[in-house]
Structures are given as structure tokens and as C-alpha cells.
Amino acid sequence: MIRVIIIREGIDAEGNPISDVRVRGRDGDNFERLDLLDMPETFDAARHVLLDSVSDEQIMSMPSFIDRWQAGLALRPGQLVLHEDIVYRVQQAHTTQADWMPGGTPALFRALGTEDEAISSYPLWIQPTGGHDAYNRGDRVTYNGIRFESTIGANVWAPSVWGWIAV
Predict the structure, then answer these.
(1) pTM above 0.85, yes or no
(2) Which of 44, 84, 120, 139 keeps 20 to 30 A from 62, CA to CA?
């Protein structure tokens, strides 16, 4: 079944927060509204699907969908955070600390819209179909906008799964 997810977030005419997801099946008649104020984990999952499917330029126009940076967040590579009105992509998994702010720790965060030649010169990761096209130890790729290096030979895993380090 094909499902369409519509995400809406904002303020209604009375100043109350609006946050919902609507899911529609293929026939168009199956329309379900989920109140995300009562289901924040569903909203977060839908929001991450949306952010993973759009370009950096589109992401920068949707700051309300991005988590605000604060100390104590457990972050994963590729995740987005907003700090001082700048959107950053997480480079390495870590838990944020007050002294590791996005603008001052390039090993942990990269501001969107500042991609350099070195990042774009790494080939995009492509899922190997077997041992004949697996990545070798030391091979470097770009995956979800982050540079990775393979730490194992015969690597058929996605960089977000196993056998890679962010570089």
C-alpha cells in the first residue's frame, strides 16, 4: 500500500500549537489524523523521514522541523541541529556538552550550505551487491552528506550500520 504522510506544525487562530500527521492510503478514502501532541515519538519519526528525503537547501528553509542544539543530547551522524539560527549536520555520534558547541567543533558538526570541495570529491556510497564490488579498507565515500572511511575489508555495510568511521 502506498501511504502519503502530511506533516503540519504551527499555531492555530487561538494561539494553540498545531502538530499533526495525516496518513492517506492509495485509495484516498483512508484518511487518518494523528494528534502528535499526544504522540511525540510518531511526529519525530515522521519528521526524520522528511528531513532525510530533502536537499540541504530545502532543510534550511524548515527550521521548525529541526531540533535545537542543547547540552545533553545524544546525537548520531547525519542528524540535524539548529544553533544560533544555523543548521548543522552531525559528523560523529556523541552526547553534546556545553563546551562542544556546533560553531566551534568542526569534527562534530558541519554547517549546512558550507560544503567544501573535499567533501563533494568523495564518491557517493553505493550498496555493494556482493564481494566483487565491496569496499576495501581505507576506501572513502560520502553518505548522507558525511565523509566516511571503511575500517574493514570486503565492506558491504552502509556507513550508518558498521565498518566505517566519519572523517
Answers:
(1) no
(2) 120
The two most distant CA atoms of the chain are separated, in Å, by 61
Task: Give the CATH H-level superfamily of domain 66-113.
Answer: Carbohydrate-binding module superfamily 5/12 (2.10.10.20)
Q: Which helix (H) or strand (E) holds 81?
A: strand 80-83
In the chain, the N- to C-terminal Cα span, in Å, equals 39
**Would you tell me how many other CB atoms lie within 10 Å of the CB of residue 146?**
22
Q: Which amino acid is present at 49?
A: V
CATH of domain 118-166: 2.10.10
Per residue of the chain (167 residues), what is the pLDDT tens digit? 344 455 555 666 676 655 555 554 444 444 444 444 455 666 666 666 666 666 777 776 667 778 889 999 999 888 888 888 788 889 889 999 999 889 888 889 988 866 544 444 577 888 998 888 899 998 888 887 788 889 999 999 999 899 999 88
What grid cell was written down for 101?
Answer: 558547541
Write the CA distances from 82 to 47, 92, 135, 138, 140, integer angstroms. Answer: 14, 16, 33, 32, 28
CA atoms of 37 and 42, how far apart (whole Å): 10
Cα-based distances in Å from 104 to 20, 56, 121: 35, 21, 24
